[in-house]
Amino acid sequence: MRPVIWWKNGRVVMIDQRQLPGREVYIECKNHERVARAIETLAIRGAPAIGVAAAYGVALGVSRLKGGADLDGAFAKIHKRLWRTRPTARNLFWALERMKAVYEKSWGLGLAALKKRLLAEAAAIDREDVMINRKLGRNGSALIKSGSTVLTHCNAGALATAGYGTALGVVRAAVERGKKVRVVADETRPVLQGARLTVWELARDRIPVTLITDNMAAYLMARGEIDLVIVGADRIARNGDTANKIGTYGVAVLAKEHEIPFYVAAPLSTVDLGLKDGSGIPIEERSGDEVRRIRGKLITLPKVDVRNPAFDVTPAKYITAIITERGIARPPLARSLGAWIRT
Ligand code: MRU
Asked: What share of the chain in percent tops pLDDT 70?
């Protein structure tokens, strides 16, 4: 698979995930506003990928500034625009904080040096993400026995990261180690990241995948057809409460009822130590049209009242373990996660 996002001749190029699996189209962003719009409209999505896109967005915005501009003012504007794109993914803010730190450390070096340093930082965030996912995958692969069926929700794969994926990275790592693994993918209403993206990328890697609608998971679990669940995360509070795509919480409750292990796979940059539990995680509410329509086609009355929270929070008590690049965090999650982030 080509990378999800990259820098090319002063532009940020990314695969347009809204068009998948029908068409493989790439968007070239020539300013940070285009990058911000791509994040808001889900052309690029998934917490780590959003972070990488925002970092490149800052580098792109600054690359277009001319000498003599009010640099502090211009940087703050670019940074704020990207900061406001999506509220839930911790990785967005983590990446933007890294970019701001580089800006502050480059004070007085001149515009040309600043541009170089910001681009180098964005490229580092991009590169590191793939390495982290490989490590996380390796750690998590030990949890999958050959012959297992893994249920996943949404898309926490290569498309949702700089490459390799988190939840799907664990599956990939198990397959690379010779294990036989089958994935059951929830379609993930409203915008169908499971049906469109998870199925697409697993099929490309020839990893067996079966698509179900979201309301079929309980049936398959009750029949003993699911061995474990692995999902990604948008933000993890200090106690392990985890925000992920809407519907994840329901899957976790079902998994507990059926005594099926429920794993979250995420880089430590997803953990928000500033939040003591999940109640403080900001949950994005998106346009009602995503619920009223499927792929643009109206499926209900055009003006019916709808709710569209994009994420829900799975309480830590439903989570068997969190798979990270440092290792597998088991309950009590606060202790293991906190120690890894501080050291
Ligand atoms: O709205 P999305 O598609 O950005 O939501 C994505 C998810 O919920 C993913 O599971 C999460 O970001 C982890 S991606 C490795």
From this structure: 100
Judge if the beta carbon of residue 48 lies within 6 A of ligand 1: yes
Quick one: 117 and 16 in the same domain?
Answer: yes
- Per-residue DSSP letters for 277-328? SGGG----B--THHHHEETTEE-S-TT-----BSEEEE-GGG-SEEE-SS-E
CA distance 2 to 330: 34
User: Can you read off the two tokens belonging to residue 195?
Assistant: 């049906």
20 CB within 6 A, ligand 1? no
> Are residues 71 and 150 located together in one domain of the fold?
no
State the pLDDT at residue 2.
Answer: 79
User: How many independent structural domains does the chain possess?
Assistant: 2
Pocket test for ligand 1, best of 93, 244, 249, 291 (most atoms within 8 A of CB): 244
Tell me: do 184 and 277 sit in the same domain. yes
Active site residues: 234
pTM for the model stands at 0.97
Domain harbouring 267, CATH code: 3.40.50.10470
| DSSP three-state, residue 275 | coil
Distance from the alpha carbon of residue 158 to the mean position of ligand 1, in angstroms: 11
pLDDT at position 25 over 90 = yes
Q: Are residues 65 and 180 in the same domain?
A: no
Instruction: Work out the mean pLDDT of the chain and round it to a whole number.
Output: 97
Q: Which of 45, 132, 324 to mutate to test the pocket of ligand 1 (most atoms within 8 A of CB)?
A: 45
